[in-house]
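Our preliminary data section would be incomplete without showing what the modeling component actually yields. Below, a chain of 323 amino acids is followed by its predicted structure, encoded as tokens that our downstream tools consume directly.
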Amino acid sequence: MLTAQDVRMAFYPSLGLGAELTKFWSKGKKDSGVLAVRGVSLTARAGEILGLVGESGSGKSTLGRLMGGIYKPIQGRILFQGRDLNSFDFKERRNFNKKVQFMFQDPASSLNPRQTAMEALAEGLIIHRLGSRTERHLKIERLLEEVGLSPQMSSRYPHQFSGGQRQRLCLARALSLDPMVLIADEPASALDVSIQAQIINLLLDLKVKRGLTVVLISHDLALVCLMADRLAVMYGGLIMEIFPRSLFGQVEHHPYVKALLASAETSLTDDLILEGEPPDPQNPPLGCPFHPRCPEFIERCRQSAPALCQTQNSRWVACYLRS
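Predicted structure:
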């Protein structure tokens, strides 16, 4: 459905994002940029919820934006239904933009404060020239009901909604173009626990009802395990392990996943039980990015990063001691 093939992404604050990045990279000034994603391959399968988990700075949000076409990788390819995004013409790219939609972490900053709910939801429909004015209004009313909001709220502005209601409004906007893929970046982290549960249940219901493929990005392993069919765990711009939810806690996980599991069990999802700090993306360590904090590392881990290898039951792991 949606695949990243060996993608890399770097940020250069002095240059911004654009084609000049590739030129800058080719001039041998690699140490000047921040390498956020370091050669990742990952596929979101049709109809599944793929959980993308990791600490802040692990590269998970950047990977989500690469897969959604917001960023262009400096290396590698993004494939949608088997075709490279770079090969799309204007019409095909517009169709891709309809079929892959985003739901961001902060609903307040995702909404234009000068637009009513009706205007926010109608914007995409107008851009893609879908339906008449009356048809758009009827569809928006149905969308509001589908996400648990009243159609009477359509004339309200974002500040007149609660945090949970704004997130529902963002979800309705993402669904307005009938996407095939929804990339949800920390969709519930800014909400109270009770509201989080409502948003999670809503996403699960909509996934079944609409047959959505969902890429769920989160730092909260316990939350993702409630929703995802498969989990991909990132650290230092690389994927450490990919495994189906049924194997969670049932196998000898990558040491980093074990640390995440230990922190989830003690409700310390923001403070892993590990010594040291996450790697500096501008100056990553040699070898496995996790080895400076790993309680099980061997000398080989210092020298080269292990490849992501398949072990069993659709499980992949990047660890010399687990492969």
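Residues 154 and 297 are 56 Å apart (CA to CA). The chain is about 35% helix and 20% strand. Preliminary results of this kind motivate Aim 1 of the renewal.
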